[in-house]
Structures are given as structure tokens and as C-alpha cells.
Amino acid sequence: MLLVVNNLVKKYGKKTAVDSISFTVNIGEIYGLIGPNGAGKTTTLRIIATLLTPTAGSVVVDGIDVTKNPLEVRRRISYLPEEAGAYPYMTGEEYLVFISKLYDPENYKDIAVEAEELSGLGDALKEKIKTYSKGMKRRLQLARSLAVKPRLAILDEPTSGIDVLYSLEIREQIRRYAKQHGITILLSSHNMLEVEDLCDRVAIIYNGKIIAEGTVKEIINKVGAYNLEEAFARLVMHAK
Amino acid sequence: MPSNISIFVKKEIKDLLRDPKILFSVIILPALIYIFLGQAVSFAITKVAEESGNVSLIVIDNDSGEWSKYFISYLESIGLPKLKILSNMNPQDIISSMEWQNDYDCLIVIPAGFSHNITSGVQAKVEVVAFVKSLGLTSLTKLEITNRLISNFANNIVVAYLKSAYPDRDIASILSPIVQEREVIIKNQKYSEAFAYNLVNQSFLLVLGPILVLSIVTSIAATSMGVEKEEKTLEVLLSLPLKRSDVILGKAIATAVISILGAISLSIGLFSYIGSIISAAKGEAQLAGTFRMLIDLLGKASLIKLSVGLILCLLLGSILGLIVASFASNVREAQALANIVWMPVLIVFVMLLFLELDAFSEATRVLLSVLPFSAPIIVLKTAVSSSTYLSNISIVANLIYFVIAIWLSIKWFDSERILTARPALKLKRK
Asked: Nearest CA to B322 among B408, B260, B235?
């Protein structure tokens, strides 16, 4: 197993954002974390990305505890936050080279070239990032997240702000990278179609607790719904 | 895996230099301001110097005596551009006429009895009226020139009296019975008083340098952190395979490098400014000579200590700037918060600038030397004294502050509050 989350708790003062959740993700698996706004998805992703410290419980990535050796964890992951910006006065090309160098100072050129192709931004990569649209910035961020070939890619709303056609392409890329390079993907999304299409397994999180977990088919069958969206709605309504 | 700090430092420097706000306000503007200011002041000085012998005078001679004639002859001998001699006239006729006022700078009225008073040993009086045509720093220059002409003539009268009274004496020995020969000893070297004044003035410039550089460094560090927050790049940055210490030191080093570039630009501007002024006052060679002497006088050891002290303070200022700016959510807030660091630094600098260390007890001197950011000024202040140990104390103290600041910032950047921290001081809205 590449990711083991065990009884994870995160409290902000008196408010419990994540309430004793546990799940595991296998190598090369695409795992979806879905839930309404404020359910605790991003907090969970941030803890796994070593940005937040858990109040209780543990998170182990590739055999390394996130609280004990965060730097080693960071060398094995790439994290794409929901609102991720890039340095406005760098060109897209320079940004990808910078990130690639941090992950692999020896083979950074190959990684950067791969990221450039993955972004699909073409000549725009020579332009400064401040001239990019929201969608272009997202493509750049997603490209850098996958091209560095992490052991675990944590993608928070990966297709947010991207048009339908490119979203389809991105899903294909995520699937391809997971399969070809054995990259484990942990993603959160509000787009149920995307989750249904991409994820091998899904956890539905509500009020900081996991209220359902399994393959998309298992979850749909469990509540007798037509699709994941309906299953999600029924499960959340039931939990309220 | 080797440290990624050099990759991060290069990226930071490139990114900061490309930010037009920083490029313009830190690198280009300081040089331009002083260069243009220097040209303007130099032009003004040249103009004043050109005008210094030029005064257009109207003289109303209501005395027509022997001494008023001498005075008028004296004025005629100078070769003033315009000199109008009138006699037996009411000064009010001139004062109330705009035509006269436009054509002349000053009016000298020699009243009746002027010559009689001089010959009888009574103080004689003349009335001087200046016609001000515009308000400015040099508006009353013409009045000063006129005063000088009258004083010169009065001196001539005194010399003439003394010569007739003491034909065998050296008049200079009567006018100035004691002559001083003044010298200044600095670091066992003898200097003329004028040269020592120049040295002191220029050492002030050396003190001014660190103040200006430190004002830049906190602002750049704050901007760098503000951009991370504003552009939402901090979350990604902190999830990259970089040690927290690499992030902080990388930003601090990049900020210090940009500040030094800013300081070089500022120095070019400042020296151009001073050069323009001295050149206008015909003293450029003297300036360069004095500055070289100042550098020689400080000596290699002090210059090395000065550099070390300055770099330590730059890094310290930069790290503190980063910490306070991490409470901001955008560049504007970050720069406002940077003043929290900058103001105490300014207070320390200004205080040390005007204090004479020798006037204090040993304990107080040591206490002043261990103040944060004190190192560059303490090094400069003690460079020519026997208290050079104070500069060592100051450097060690600031090194300790730097290490503490690094430790605190790593702790802070390691904590999750770096992503959510906001300034605590908020006014409650009713």
C-alpha cells in the first residue's frame, strides 16, 4: 500500500475538520475523495501533503510517516492545490524547469520537456505566467504535478477552470500516468462524472467522517442509485 | 539528495529582478533620483556662483561728502553690471517705483552726515533695501552680496585708520593678534582641519549607506512573501522537496543580493549627486582623494568587519521581513507590515549615529554594541578608536540574532499557521 491514513483527526480549536478517518490507497490506484464543501477533503489532502499537522492519527506515504520525516514525503509526492498559482514573472517553460530541477537535478531537462508536452501550452510556454488565463495556469500546474512522476500525486480539483474538451484529455493523461508509471493518484473533485470515469475507488466524506467507501459500482449498488451523483446525494442526505 | 537551495536562490533572484515594481523602485529609481537631483543642485550652485559678483545697485548719495565719494568710487572700481548713482533724492521715490525695482537688485541710501560721522569717530549708517523678485532659496542672495561689498569697504576704512595710526606695525597682527594652526590626529596620522572635516562628512555617508540598504531589504523580503500569498504559490512551494531552511535562507539570500544591487545603484546615484555638487564647487579631485583616504584610514580589517556586519544585518532584516510579511495576504499588506521591522532598525541607527560612544561607561558601550542591527555603525564608529573590540562584540551579537531569527523562522515556516496567519491587530467594526 502506498498511502495509509489511520484514524486521522484534525481540529481547529473546538471545530473538528477531520474526524477519525481511515483509508488506504494501493500503488498505481486512482482514489477519489468526494464530499460537499467544508467536508474535510482539502484538510485531509493538506495533511498528506505535509502542510498541516494532524491532531491525532497517522498518515504514512510510501512507508514514511508525514509528521516524522516530512521532507522525505515531499520528495515522493506532488501536490496540486485547488487554487494553485505560479510565479507571474517567470515563463511557463522556466517554471517547469525550476520544478523539475527540484525533483531531479540530473534529469531535469527530460522532465521539463515532458511537462511542456503534457501542458499542451505550445508557444505560450515562452510567455510570462502573468499573461496566462486561469485554465492555462491549471494546465501548467497539472503538467508539473504529473511529469515529475511522484510516488503519490495529490490532486485537489484537477480540472477546475478547464474546458470540457481539455478536461477529457487531462483525465486520459492522469489514467495513462497512473498505469504507465505506477503513480498513485489521490484526487478530490466535485465533478461526479470525472470521479466515476477516473477513480478505481472512492470515499465519500461528510462532516469530517467517511460515510461510504468502495468502487464506484459498489457505492451505486449500495444505495440503488443510477449513478455516482445520485448515490452521493442520497448518502449525504441520509448522513444529515 | 543535495540541497536545492542554489536552484531556489537563482529562481528567486530572477523572479524578483523581473518584478517591475522592484526593478524600478529598488534598482533604477534610486540612481535616477540622485543623478537628476545632483544635476539640478549643481545647476543651481553654478547659477548662484555666476551671479555672486553680479548685483545691480542704485546708490542715493544724500551726503555728497568725502567718504560717500570714496564709497561710490569703490563700487565703481568693482565693475558691477549696473550701478546708478543718484543724489539728493527721497528713497521712497525709488521704493515705490516698479520700474526701478525690476531693473535693480538693491538700493543703498547714504544719508546726510555719513562722512562727518566717519571722520568724527561715530558709527555711520547706510540703509540697504533689497528688491525681491521671486521667492526661493536664493531670493536674498543679492542682499548678501551687497552686505559683503559694504563690509569690505568698512574693512578698508579700518585698515586705512590703523595704517595712519600705526605706520610701523603689521596691520594683520593688529586685526588678528592670535593665529591658530589647527591639526587633527586620527589613528596617529596628522591631518589638516579641512581634510578632517571632509573625512567626517564622508564617513557619515558610509553610515547612511547601511541605513538605506536595510530600508530596502525589509521591503523586498516583504514583497517576496506578499507575492507568494497574493499569487497563491506558497502552498505549492511548501509542498515541494525543499527544506524549510532552504526556503527561508533562499529568500533571505536572494533579497540580500537584490538589496546590494539596490545599494550599488543608490551609491552610484549618491556619488553622482555629491560629485555634481563638488564639481560645481570646483572640488571633485578633493572628494575622490578624501574618499580614498577614508578607505585607507578605516583599514582592511574594519572594511571586512563592515561587510560582514552589513551582510549579517541584511540577512537578519530579510528574515524578519519574511516572518512579519507571512501574516499578510497580499503585497500591499506585506509592505505595510515590513515597517514593523524597519522602524526599530531606524531608531537604533539614528540613535547610534548621534551618540558618541566614548561619552558612555564601559557597560553602556557594550550594551549599545549588542543592539540588533548595530554592527555596521559600531564598526564605523570604532574603526579609528582603540575600542575596536566593541565591533567584534557587535558582530558576534548580531550573528547570534541571525541564528535565532533563522531558528524562529524555520519553526514558523514549519508550522501550519504560515498558510493561515493574519495580522492580529484588527479594529472592531461597530
From this structure: B408
Distance from CA of B259 to the nearest CA of A (A): 19
Taking the complete model, does pTM exceed 0.80, yes or no? no
Say yes or no: B15 contacts chain A, CB-CB below 8 A: yes
SS3 B304: helix
| Residue in this structure with the C-alpha cell 490506484, named with its chain if needed | A29
| Partner residue opposite B242 with nearest CB, options A53, A84, A102 | A102
Cα R_g (chain B), whole angstroms = 32
**Span A62-70, mean pLDDT?**
95
Strand order in the sheet with A77-80: A77-80, A152-156, A184-188, A30-34, A201-206, A209-214
Q: Give the model's confidence band at B288: pLDDT under 50 very low, under 70 low, under 90 confident, else very high.
A: low
A87-139: per-residue pLDDT in tens?
999 999 999 999 999 999 999 999 999 999 999 999 999 999 999 998 899 99
Read off the pLDDT of each residue in B96-125 and give the average, rounded to a whole number: 89
What is the largest distance, in Å, between two alpha-carbon atoms of chain B?
A: 101
DSSP A123: G
B363 and chain A: CB distance < 8 Å anywhere? no
Closest Cα in chain A to B238:
A51
What mean pLDDT is reported for chain B? 83
The Cα B248–Cα A85 span in angstroms is: 20
Alpha helix ranges (H) inside B281-387: 284-325, 331-354, 362-369, 375-382
Q: How far apart are CA A47 and CA A40, in angstroms?
A: 11
CA B349 to chain centre: 14
Interchain CB distance below 8 Å, B4 and A101: yes
Spell out which residues of chain A touch residue B227, defining contact as CB-CB under 8 Å: 87-88
Q: Would you say B260 and B214 are in contact if contact means Cβ atoms under 8 Å apart?
A: no
* B427 — pLDDT class (breaks 50, 70, 90): very low
- The whole-number pLDDT of residue B400 equals 96
Residues 199-218 of A with CB under 8 A from B: none
Burial (0-12, 13-18, 19+ Cβ within 10 Å), A136: buried
**In the numeric block, which cell numbers belong to residue A98?**
525550476
All three cell numbers of B200, joined, read 567626517
